[in-house]
Specification:
The complex is a heterodimer of chains A (about 190) and B (about 250).
Chain A lengths: L1 H15 L3 H20 L5 H18 L10 H20 L21 H19 L3 H12 L4 H8 L3 H26 L1
Helix pairs in contact in A: 1-2, 2-3, 2-4, 3-4, 4-7, 6-8, 7-8
Chain B lengths: L1 H19 L4 H7 L4 H20 L6 H14 L6 H8 L2 H30 L8 H13 L4 H25 L5 H20 L6 H28 L2 H21 L1
Helix pairs in contact in B: 1-3, 8-9, 8-10, 9-11, 10-11
The chains are: A mainly alpha (about 190), B mainly alpha (about 250).
Chain lengths: ~190, ~250
């Protein structure tokens, strides 16, 4: 999507000059993909929302040093997201479950009904169970390609691999995922 | 490798169509019967991932609300660079205030420095600012390039040393008299050296300066002699030494 990339380029330049609204536009454009990536690795929607904000705050702080010649912006965003996810896992090994009262104001405004929330939560746990049975690189390639909808080139940049390697990885990961879905289905029956 | 690429292309091409309901799994498999065994499990996995994508989507209003929150957070953070910090934090009123404050500070600093220089110029050898006075005189001499002006300045300084000498005697600080006499002697010597180095084409100026020096030295001797009559005996040795130095200057002029 060359138009989108050009638009991103302009917004990045403006954001680097301190334009918060331009950065807000970048956020609006890329936050859904980042959120999906994070949520497909986490068991809590609020954590995914918090971490999405954290990713963009970190990116804002790193913007003065960022040059597009190095890593494309989307790949840069996902690299930051991946690092934040790793930090989150590390912290969570030492932390108690987070109290909902400690959440920021906007995060607490979840609209879902309790019954719907529980249903969603069960469904989400099921998804995580399937994904967590896969190898880490299979998980990464599948979430980046099909949940965050990154192109093979962008996925290759985020995962520091060649496009060919991503193709092979995706081919295998899809087959393994299908097997796991079968296994879990048999187990549940 | 070839099959992998082919399957990837099929997945890339038909994923959106499956997602929108335009194509089904079976319709795609019917298009590629030779790949059906490889393609089926992968397309089923892709369909499952598409459902997952929908289930992990953001809740309604989240992006809009969180954008506002993020922008507010960023605005409360310090801006990126020094210049952004400077321009962002300063309102026009603040600019005026800062400009006025800096101007006032510069004026005050100028007044203090001016005061300091004046005080230093009036100081005598027993006072703390006297070394500043000597530094100022050295700077003045270094910045004077014209020979006549430089010699005039030496004469003026020799007169200044005599005035300091008189003040020391009047204040009773006799222990400073030998050093004051040495400074008077060095000023007279410097004046004579400067006269010596006058260019040939400025002989008229040299003559006028010579007369000026002679008058200054004569006045200094007269002033010191007057001081001798009014001072206590303990000061006489120092005063006589200073008179002797001034007289030596006149002798050297001859």
């Amino acid at each position: 999507m060359p138009g989108k990339l050009d638009n991103d380029h302009e917004l990045i330049k403006k954001a680097q000059r301190g334009d918060v609204t331009a950065f807000g536009d970048l956020y609006e454009s890329h936050a859904p993909a980042i959120f999906r990536y994070l949520f497909s690795h986490l068991d809590n929607q609020m954590d995914a929302e918090d971490l999405t904000g954290e990713v963009f705050l970190k990116v804002w702080r790193s913007l003065p040093k960022y040059t597009e010649r190095g890593v494309p912006f989307l790949a840069f965003l996902f690299k930051v997201a991946r690092n934040i996810l790793v930090d989150h896992y590390r912290k969570n090994n030492n932390l108690e479950t987070k109290d909902p009262e400690e959440m920021d104001g906007y995060s607490a405004e979840v609209i879902s009904e309790p019954i719907e929330l529980v249903g969603n939560q069960i469904e989400h746990q099921k998804i995580l169970r399937v994904l967590h049975r896969l190898r880490t690189d299979y998980q990464s390639v599948l979430t980046l390609r099909f949940i965050s909808e990154l192109s093979p080139e962008e996925t290759a940049q985020v995962m520091n691999r060649s496009v060919g390697a991503i193709r092979v990885l995706q081919h295998r990961a899809l087959a393994v995922l299908r097997e796991e879905l079968d296994n879990i289905g048999k187990h549940e029956d | 490798m070839k099959i992998e690429r082919q399957i990837e292309q099929i997945i890339n091409t038909y994923s959106p169509a499956i997602s929108s309901g335009e194509e089904s799994l079976e319709s795609i498999l019917a298009m590629y019967p030779q790949l059906a065994n490889e393609l089926r499990p992968r397309l089923e996995a892709v369909i499952w991932l598409q459902q997952v994508r929908l289930s992990v989507a953001t809740r309604p209003g989240f992006i809009h609300d969180s954008r506002k929150y993020l922008e507010a957070q960023i605005k409360s953070m310090p801006p990126h660079s020094f210049w952004q910090r400077l321009f962002k934090t300063l309102t026009p009123r603040r600019w005026v205030f800062n400009f006025a404050a800096i101007t006032l500070m510069i004026i005050s600093l100028g007044a203090v420095i001016n005061d300091l220089i004046l005080t230093a110029r009036l100081s005598i050898p027993n006072e703390p600012l006297y070394s500043t006075k000597l530094v100022i005189e050295d700077i003045q001499l270094a910045l004077t390039f014209n020979r006549k002006a430089k010699t005039d300045l030496y004469i003026q300084l020799s007169n200044e040393r005599t005035t300091e000498f008189v003040e020391l005697v009047l204040q009773g600080d006799y222990e400073y008299l030998p050093s004051a006499t040495r400074r008077l002697e060095s000023e007279i010597t410097a004046t004579l050296d400067s006269l010596e180095n006058f260019p040939i084409h400025e002989q008229d100026n040299k003559q006028a300066t010579l007369v000026k020096l002679r008058e200054t030295l004569t006045n200094e001797i007269f002033m010191l002699n007057m001081l001798k009559w009014t001072s206590p005996p303990s000061a006489l040795t120092g005063i006589n030494l200073a008179i002797h130095v001034a007289q030596s200057g006149i002798v050297a002029l001859h």
